[in-house]
Amino acid sequence: MANASLVQVKVDSQTKTEVTNIYESLGLDLPTAIRIFFKKSIAVGGLPFELRNDTRSERWNIYKEARDSIQKNNVPEMSLDEINAEISAL
How is the chain split among helix, strand and coil, in percent rounded to 5? Predict the structure, then answer.
């Protein structure tokens, strides 16, 4: 690697062991996994995963997953009246 720079990060030994085991199970060593993380960050222009700090995001993801599943399985959408009628029938 021409023009390589050293990056050092301190983490607790348990975290290092756990993440090393994960990457090794994928056939990667820790430095390679970190380089992949850096390259993916560059490719997406930010962190290569979504950050969330509240439950609204979790609820939205559940809604989105349900909606995607409905669309994937060609389940027809229901109107609010149809939904209420179904609930009332229970």
Answer: 60, 0, 40
